[in-house]
Design brief:
Layout (H helix, E strand, L loop, with lengths): L2 H36 L8 H34 L3 H4 L2 H7 L4 H21 L15
């Protein structure tokens, strides 16, 4: 394998790691958003908070998805530049081949809907915070 092939392979592997970084960031932000709501404080009932949190999360989610799709496109371009010796290795290709944009969008969209539904549909505010006696 020559130096150019090695460089292409390394770039492809690096872009694969970057996709994982974007997914990890997404998980951290989604968990933080749900965590804010699950804190059980009275402010979690505020419609203004829910609107702001939903809007901010939606902007973040769209930008995160677009970055993941762009990295997938970059990975495909790198793979298409591979010499035949690398492209004809099914194990290597299976590990480096990105999902198509529709798969990323469907999965990301499902998670986005779940997070926004958690903001709006789950009754996060706990009765104990309102001064009500629990168990009586």
């Amino acid at each position: 394998m020559d130096g150019d092939s090695l460089s292409l392979l390394q770039l492809s592997m690096d872009s694969s790691k970057e996709v994982n970084t974007y997914w990890n960031l997404y998980i951290a932000v989604a968990t933080a958003v749900v965590g804010i709501m699950a804190a059980g404080h009275q402010y979690t009932n505020s419609k203004i908070l829910k609107i702001i949190l939903s809007g901010a999360f939606l902007v973040f989610a769209i930008s995160n998805l677009l970055a993941i799709i762009r990295l997938g496109n970059l990975r495909m371009a790198l793979i298409n530049a591979f010499p035949d010796e690398l492209r004809n290795n099914p194990e290597l290709m299976a590990g480096l081949m990105p999902a198509d944009w529709l798969s990323y969008t469907a999965f990301h969209g499902f998670l986005d809907i779940a997070v926004i539904a958690a903001i709006w549909a789950v009754p996060w505010f706990m009765a104990r915070e309102s001064g009500a006696d629990i168990g009586k």
